[in-house]
């Protein structure tokens, strides 16, 4: 693919971003404005034009799924030699390489989770702490580390933190000290230590800094609004005195402040990097004008907010988002399931529909209502696709079969193997484990259509193994149920946003201005997931019969009117 052809399909602002190859570049990209297209074409254009050497480019993001998507797109654009990783994956690769040289021996093992050691720390301190509280303490440890605080510095601010249950500030500090001591005794490091140790090694070992900076010259960082102080520090160490850094982000989608993310690095990029090229992407290619108007109303006047402009023109069939109120959660869930059944009957694919909510407990009523209607659904964030037993078995069986593969068409080779495991062209009747197994195998079968023409059976299984390693999951033919946080980065034709009442959106423990503003941004993320249809709803009470009306509509709904028309239902 030649350099000029990589620019041909870009709009004017995307092209400006793609052609800005050197020096600091900041791309402020609103939801649905083609930011991934802009940065992948920028990288590929840099490679094709000879400005970038592929193995000297590092593209950084925050999830394995996003990194896998970047790698896939770059391969298709002829820039397969570019490294696209999460911050943690990049830091871990460097630690594994340099640790034997600098420290000697093997890198300490990385903990799968903090729960077990925290449990032992509680026992050591004679504290009774339940599983939920242990998770909260783990979150405090993560926040402290990514915020760049020592335990002593954390002790100075702990009283301003929201601590689990009845835990006292001094107990929270003692738990963290005991956790670190046990971890050191066992010669283990945790997820955040990977970044801390990598940063420390580059900072204190000139030879390591020299080799790292020699290896990577050009950096691209996606979702820059989610960068924490620790990640920002590590990025600066990777860069050294050089200025070839391109960042892309949207301050209106900063929804991880509780985990240390700070949009100030995005909004202050020009101050930090003098002479930076700043490009604004505001042409929305995803949503209908009605959805975009709803999103703009919510964020109007907020710091750093971009104003989205619809590329699509209004059509007679476009729906104006409606805010509906129901008597209780079950009535709301049943109504959503009824609407989804109608959408599917009218031709919308289940995988093009999502129901989004604030907290996981809201999924229970939805699962019941969808199950009663015989509608397949997938709860995002539950057991991961590549961890399912039937998926593991299918990958092993396919890999073994590919060793002795013939020259048959790829579809026949894969389908023959999957049939031996229970797959068929038509889904089984009814619900339950048999249908769930078929859905998993059918998702693998669907990946055949994503392979390039002429791909071999072995290439297909190589792709499967790469997806498994990166947890790059295929799309299941099922309605998605997800929290607003889990929906970030995804999109669907039809989105049902439920539970829009005070105490849920905004959540009850969001009390200060900054916390309420984060809840606003979270709702904005939910709204901008919708391509064609957006429905908003809330219920007046939970599922306890006989209890008086206790909920009020979310304060944000009033701001969305008249974009979101209010209706009383059920």
UniProtKB/TrEMBL annotation:
It catalyses: ATP + H2O = ADP + phosphate + H(+); Couples ATP hydrolysis with the unwinding of duplex DNA by translocating in the 3'-5' direction. Keywords: ATP-binding, Helicase, Hydrolase, Isomerase, Nucleotide-binding. Pfam families: UvrD-helicase (PF00580), UvrD_C (PF13361). The keyword Nucleotide-binding applies. Residues 289-532 form the UvrD-like helicase C-terminal domain. GO terms for molecular function: 3'-5' DNA helicase activity; ATP binding; DNA binding; hydrolase activity. Residues 538-570 are annotated as: Disordered. InterPro entries: DExx_box_DNA_helicase_dom_sf, DNA_helicase_UvrD-like_C, DNA_helicase_UvrD/REP, P-loop_NTPase, UvrD-like_ATP-bd. The keyword DNA damage does not apply. One of its GO terms (cellular component) is cytosol. Belongs to the helicase family. UvrD subfamily. This is DNA 3'-5' helicase.
């Amino acid at each position: 693919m030649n350099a000029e052809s990589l620019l041909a399909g870009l709009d004017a602002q995307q092209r400006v971003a793609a052609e800005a190859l050197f020096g600091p570049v900041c791309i402020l990209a609103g939801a649905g404005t083609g930011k991934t297209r802009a940065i992948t074409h920028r990288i590929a254009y840099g490679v094709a034009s000879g400005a970038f050497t592929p193995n000297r480019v590092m593209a950084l993001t925050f999830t394995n799924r996003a990194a896998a998507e970047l790698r896939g797109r770059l391969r298709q654009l002829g820039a397969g030699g570019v490294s696209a990783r999460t911050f943690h994956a990049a830091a871990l690769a460097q630690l594994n390489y340099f640790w034997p040289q600098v420290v000697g021996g093997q890198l300490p093992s990385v903990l799968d989770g903090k729960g077990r050691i925290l449990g032992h720390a509680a026992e050591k301190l004679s504290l009774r702490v339940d599983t939920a509280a242990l998770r909260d303490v783990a979150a405090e440890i993560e926040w402290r580390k990514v915020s760049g605080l020592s335990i002593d510095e954390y002790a100075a601010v702990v009283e301003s933190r929201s601590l689990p249950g009845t835990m006292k500030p001094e107990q929270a500090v003692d738990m963290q000290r005991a956790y670190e001591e046990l971890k050191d005794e066992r010669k283990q490091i945790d997820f955040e230590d990977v970044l801390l140790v990598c940063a420390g090694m580059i900072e204190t070992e000139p030879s390591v800094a020299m080799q790292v900076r020699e290896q990577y010259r050009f950096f691209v960082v996606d979702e820059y609004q989610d960068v924490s102080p620790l990640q920002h520090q590590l990025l600066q160490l990777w860069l050294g005195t050089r200025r070839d850094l391109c960042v892309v982000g949207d301050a209106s989608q900063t929804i991880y402040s509780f985990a240390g993310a700070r949009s100030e690095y995005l909004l202050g990029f020009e101050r930090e990097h003098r002479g930076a090229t700043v490009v604004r992407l505001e042409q929305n290619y995803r949503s209908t004008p009605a959805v975009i108007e709803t999103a703009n109303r919510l964020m109007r006047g907020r710091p750093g907010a971009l104003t989205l402009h619809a590329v699509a023109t209004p059509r007679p069939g476009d729906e104006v988002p409606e805010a509906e109120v129901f008597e209780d959660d079950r009535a709301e869930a049943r109504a959503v399931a009824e609407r989804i059944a109608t959408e599917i009957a009218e031709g919308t694919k289940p995988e093009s529909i999502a129901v989004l909510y604030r907290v996981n407990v809201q999924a229970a009523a939805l699962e019941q209502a969808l199950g009663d209607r015989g509608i397949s659904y997938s709860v995002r964030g539950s057991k991961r696709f590549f961890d399912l037993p039937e998926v593991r078995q299918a990958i092993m069986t396919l890999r073994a079969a590919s060793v002795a593969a013939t020259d048959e068409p790829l579809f026949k080779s894969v389908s023959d193997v999957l049939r031996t495991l229970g797959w068929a062209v038509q889904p089984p009747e009814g619900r339950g484990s048999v249908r769930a197994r078929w859905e998993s195998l059918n998702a693998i079968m669907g990946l055949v259509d994503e392979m390039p023409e002429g791909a071999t059976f072995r290439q297909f299984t190589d792709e499967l193994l790469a997806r498994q390693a990166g947890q790059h999951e295929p799309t299941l033919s099922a309605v998605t149920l997800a929290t607003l946080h889990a929906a970030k980065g995804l999109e669907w034709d039809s989105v049902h946003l439920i539970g829009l009442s005070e105490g849920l959106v905004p959540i009850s423990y969001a009390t200060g201005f900054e916390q309420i503003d984060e809840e606003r941004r979270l709702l904005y993320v939910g709204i901008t997931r919708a391509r064609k249809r957006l429905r908003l709803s809330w219920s007046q009470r939970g599922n306890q019969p006989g209890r008086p009306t206790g909920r009020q509509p979310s304060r944000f709904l009033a701001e969305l009117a008249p974009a979101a028309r209010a209706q009383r239902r059920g």
